[in-house]
Amino acid sequence: MVRLLEGEDTDRMDALSDGVFAIVLTLLVLQFQVPDADATGVPAALADQRPLLFSYLLSFAVVGLYWIVHHNLFQRIVRHDRVLLYLNLLFLLTVSFLPFPTELLGIYGTHFTWTLYALNFSFVGLSLTLLWWYAYRRGFTDETVDHRTGRLVTVRGLISPVVFLVSVGVATVSLSLAFVTPILIVPLQMLWARYYERGRE
Amino acid sequence: MVRLLEGEDTDRMDALSDGVFAIVLTLLVLQFQVPDADATGVPAALADQRPLLFSYLLSFAVVGLYWIVHHNLFQRIVRHDRVLLYLNLLFLLTVSFLPFPTELLGIYGTHFTWTLYALNFSFVGLSLTLLWWYAYRRGFTDETVDHRTGRLVTVRGLISPVVFLVSVGVATVSLSLAFVTPILIVPLQMLWARYYERGRE
Amino acid sequence: MVRLLEGEDTDRMDALSDGVFAIVLTLLVLQFQVPDADATGVPAALADQRPLLFSYLLSFAVVGLYWIVHHNLFQRIVRHDRVLLYLNLLFLLTVSFLPFPTELLGIYGTHFTWTLYALNFSFVGLSLTLLWWYAYRRGFTDETVDHRTGRLVTVRGLISPVVFLVSVGVATVSLSLAFVTPILIVPLQMLWARYYERGRE
Amino acid sequence: MVRLLEGEDTDRMDALSDGVFAIVLTLLVLQFQVPDADATGVPAALADQRPLLFSYLLSFAVVGLYWIVHHNLFQRIVRHDRVLLYLNLLFLLTVSFLPFPTELLGIYGTHFTWTLYALNFSFVGLSLTLLWWYAYRRGFTDETVDHRTGRLVTVRGLISPVVFLVSVGVATVSLSLAFVTPILIVPLQMLWARYYERGRE
């Protein structure tokens, strides 16, 4: 049976992953508390929860982006073995943990909670990049993925974890600055893709 | 890899969306609290939660209707690019936020909570209409969608957000009237479709 | 677009329904509370929650059986229109509400909570039978479903709601007897199928 | 209709199972509590929750492994009857119950809570092995599964429940030793597969 474990399709890996992503995206809203106030006090009580809105939206955006990346990578990964299943579970572990640091950050908003939050997102990015690198090295990708594309995507996948790690350092100087650091991820990824393409010609 | 992102199938977009819809529909019931009363006090304690039933049923109905619309639109959308993935995530953001204003409305039932609730549903409708409009303009729809159908569906999609926005105004006059305003959505959509069809001949 | 709503496949209806079933089956466990006791008091504190185990297992079993029935019916339903989508949402509404009366019953175990619980399950059965009846009458079923099978399944679908309604009456005499009444459902369904088959020859 | 219940595809069984697995994997994080402390007390308050991390990671790993096994087995199971649907529901019952003993173990970490936890995982393994054994005996597996593979997988499936049962005994001597006993599962499964393969030649 051990040998039977290498299979052609990745449909159920997609299904499990989509399930985890859908639940994480939806659980994030549970951090908002219905205030225990009288009717006139509700607007003020909700205004107190505004910091939660920042961590909620940031988490939703980053998780959403990672769903797109996962979706994108698995369009090219057409075979798997047992190790790839493990690596996908490791990735889902990091994703499914996110609601906890998101709520911590939303409530406390300290340097310490930002560190936990940024580390969690770093692990998300690192485990997905590891998964891609393994799939590409083992030849589980389809024929559209050549050597250069394999490397391009691997390096691109490291940009997001590095930015989150840098943001932990930035947070020692200014917490507000650290909060906006993740905005750098998308332009940096584009720059890297352009730079790499140019070197190709 | 950037260019690889335009793909033919929308299967996993469907899967993620169905997951979020299923979870939102099921989470809505969590707003009901098992009362902390002795056995004889349970009927009275549950009767106190009756207002929650209204917001529960309204949310279930509107979310269910939007699932039908999403299902319907994606039967015609057969290609996607990165922007469409973003727009679908934006739509899911608005859907996944719904349990919070639903519970707020059910507990407080004030003009303020109705405003939040109606605004959230307006964003749901606007983001889905934006998604459709983009897909149609970029030619991601199948051959059954001609110019007229594209416009018909776009305008029809704006009816629901407009009705919810109008209901915020209605709520300044009468809250009970605002609560029943959404009933107008389905007949208004039918009227518009009929009017448009007639102009076609 | 209105006419476009009649479609061939029921894949996404399956997907949404499976999602709601999976979440309801998993949410049921959330009614169990980690006791707030010291380490030696845990066994006793858990023993206090034994009544919850009954309502948990009964709900899991009945929801599971309804998933099988839904799965079974949708193997024969191969087309749909807008009304069928509505009827499926109505069915999912009744299913997704179940965790609440399940917890109420597990905690209070009174005649009143059994009534709520049994009524909820009656609505589950009635809405699914209505859905089947509509699909069969509109000719949305495949060629293996003839007139007799259509009626056989419709009547069989009414057995479970009737048993639950009867159990509400039984509960006025003996609550324990009411709790075991649902066991009658499976043998009664078999009897009806056998009786109907015999009449056929 | 009763006879109609034997079907060719197992797609929706996969879908329901993937849904339950995805939700269980994601619900496990809900056991972590956002501490009710001032900002400086957060690191210490989180450190108090470290035991939860052990039960969280162990549960995630074992549930993940069982998803892989389920995924693997259902690649070979190509037909089903009503009994197989029941056995799959029984398996999902044991899986969906896991968050509760996981949280109990994480909070109390006593011999009693380990017993509950290990028993639950034993039931997970036993019900899945029963499911496999039934499918194989009824000939629902594909042509790659011969008599020897059928037996190999059945016996292999019993290793995990036996290890968990043994760990309950181990816990009477040393709780820490019991916690690491599950590590034996994977090497023991490999040893068994190797031993069986050798006897084959």
From TrEMBL, chains A, B, C, D:
UniProt keywords, alphabetically: Ion channel, Ion transport, Membrane, Potassium, Potassium channel, Potassium transport, Transmembrane, Transmembrane helix, Transport
Pfam family name, one: TMEM175
Superkingdom per UniProt: Archaea
Reaction it catalyzes: K(+)(in) = K(+)(out)
Record carries keyword Transport: yes
Places the protein is found: Membrane
Membrane topology summary: Multi-pass membrane protein
Signal peptide from the UniProt entry: none
Keyword DNA repair: no
Chain segments annotated as transmembrane: 15-33, 53-71, 83-102, 114-136, 157-185
Database matches in PANTHER family: ENDOSOMAL/LYSOSOMAL POTASSIUM CHANNEL TMEM175 (PTHR31462), ENDOSOMAL_LYSOSOMAL PROTON CHANNEL TMEM175 (PTHR31462:SF5)
Family per similarity comment: Belongs to the TMEM175 family.
The name this protein goes by in its record: TMEM175 family protein
Species name: Natronoglomus mannanivorans
